[in-house]
């Protein structure tokens, strides 16, 4: 949920550094992670990192972008021959929320450094949000074409759907009570499925 930065280096090199950042953040949180720690774990010099990223927060921003896009796109099911766009989107979004709320990095940031997410909730959209809107818009257009999704201006519809899904992702744990089956995370995901079905059905 943060802007992608183009650092001019090979993707595999970036991935090695981002993997090191992820390990550091999972171990000690963002505020206690240093570029020295990341460089040591990644097997690169500090100057190599400084040439690409000015500080730890910019590194973590790129890490969040990579991880969040991977979760969202990975949750989308394979399109079966009889699966409508609405069915694909509803299942994919519910599964994505489930995967987000159990994702180790997402949980660590919510527990230790939640302020990192606030700009992308209150002030501006980030790169992963833009990528998700593009994905949503594409499937919604397919749904308009196959008749399974209520017709509406695609960009507005995509943003509205993302608002719904984002609220469940960020706040689900504040509403659940796992001792009560009717208030469990899975029960709320069932509600989310129903909300999406109702808002998307023509």
UniProtKB/TrEMBL annotation:
InterPro entries: Homeodomain-like_sf, HTH-type_TetR-like_transc_reg, HTH_TetR, Tet_transcr_reg_TetR-rel_C_sf. Keywords: DNA-binding. Transmembrane segments: none annotated. Residues 11-71 form the HTH tetR-type domain. Residues 34-53 bind DNA. This is TetR/AcrR family transcriptional regulator. It comes from Streptomyces tunisiensis.
């Amino acid at each position: 949920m943060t802007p992608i930065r183009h650092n001019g280096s090979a993707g595999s090199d970036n991935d090695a550094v981002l993997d090191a950042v992820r390990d550091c953040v999972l171990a000690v949180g963002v505020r206690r992670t240093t570029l020295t720690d990341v460089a040591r774990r990644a097997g690169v010099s500090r100057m190599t990192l400084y040439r690409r990223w000015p500080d730890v927060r910019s590194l973590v921003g790129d890490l969040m972008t990579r991880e969040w896009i991977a979760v969202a796109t990975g949750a989308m099911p394979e399109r079966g021959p009889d699966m409508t766009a609405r069915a694909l989107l509803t299942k994919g979004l519910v599964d994505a929320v489930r995967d987000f709320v159990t994702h180790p990095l997402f949980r660590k940031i919510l527990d230790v450094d939640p302020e990192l997410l606030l700009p992308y909730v209150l002030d501006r959209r980030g790169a992963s949000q833009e990528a998700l809107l593009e994905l949503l818009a594409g499937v919604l257009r397919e749904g308009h074409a196959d008749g399974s999704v209520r017709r509406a201006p695609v960009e507005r519809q995509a943003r509205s759907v993302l608002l719904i899904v984002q609220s469940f992702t960020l706040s689900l744990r504040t509403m659940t009570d796992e001792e009560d089956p009717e208030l469990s995370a899975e029960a709320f995901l069932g509600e989310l499925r129903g909300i999406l079905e109702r808002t998307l059905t023509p």
